[in-house]
Write a structure and sequence with these properties.
- This protein has one domain: Aminopeptidase.
- 40% of the residues lie in helices and 14% in strands.
- The protein contains eleven helices and eight strands.
- Strand 1 and strand 2 form a beta hairpin.
- Helix 3 crosses helix 11 and helix 8 crosses helix 11.
- It is globular, with a radius of gyration of 22 Å.
- The chain binds zinc ion (ZN).
- The site of zinc ion (ZN) has 4 residues, from loops.
- The site of zinc ion has 4 residues, from loops.
Length: 354
Amino acid sequence: MTHRRIVTLIGVMLLIQVGCNKFIKVFEDDNDSPFSYDYKFYQPFHKIANELYRLSDTSRRHSVFSIGKTFEKRKLYAFKIDNTADKDDRKTIVIDCGAHAREWIAPSTCMYLLKKLTDNSKKDKRIGKLRKRYDFVIIPVLNPDGYVHTWKGNATRLWRKNRSFTKDQMKIFLKTKNPLCIGVDVNRNFDKAWGGPGAPVNNPCFEMFAGAHAFSEKESQALAKYLNSTRDDVISYVSLHNFGQVWTTPWGFTKKEPAVYDELKRVASLATKSMKKMFGVNYTVGTSHDEIYPNSGSSTDWAYSKLSIKYPYLIEMRPKTASNQSFLLPDAVMYRNAQEILEGIKTMALNFKH
Ligand SMILES: [Zn+2]
């Protein structure tokens, strides 16, 4: 090949490269593109997954991995912010969202937490402090099959359970033609007081159906396996839901208070007070049993009793009371909620006693 031809070829290759980069840039900036994520609006599952990979590329301390697969073979994504890799004494805070499909503000809030907690620009000094003390593992959509189902249209928007079924369940569904007879309530399927108060096991057509047996579901199995594998590092496990504006401690299955109730309440009260300072939101603090309603087989009761995780919380976020918007909050309220919860999580973590 002559020298002139080689120069021309290199020129053409450079032009192609510049053209590709320009295309990628335009594609990333376009909010309507199939991949870009807009934190001010609810986002479908594929955009959440793509954003996790994008954030994982922003630091060698960030990684995305899967803790398991669902009934419909979707990945259960988890994101780790590995702040204390060089320390012997690791302390991890695990947060999950979206166990209940229709509670759309939960995955959005988890993603907002991730965005802010992965920001190492040092703009927020308290986040800087947290980054020195804790690793974070965030599971933004614990029930992706259900979440994807709620995005199909108005008829399915208020779906709560996952999308699994047993042969018996399918028989009942075919006989009754009641779509509610499919699926299991992921947050009633853990092996702590399974099938107790608020967790029906005899009729799969209930929205809170607890499953064929404890840990019958892929999502609860995967979360339990992951938490168990890292139990010595986990100082806190937080599960985000809506609604009710309550920051709750175990127990859900009994009226009894847990042994460390005063300490759990102290931290939760500081967190909710700091949230009130932002936009005036009112949260109450108490046991899940008293503040929500009796509920058995929950992940927080299980994590507290079986893994002895020191600070287990279930937070029911906005709104305060039931309305026709309970699960259909406008995007602007979702965004405010996410900002408040970040504030609460920061205050919570900075007040842990080790
Ligand atoms: Zn929920």
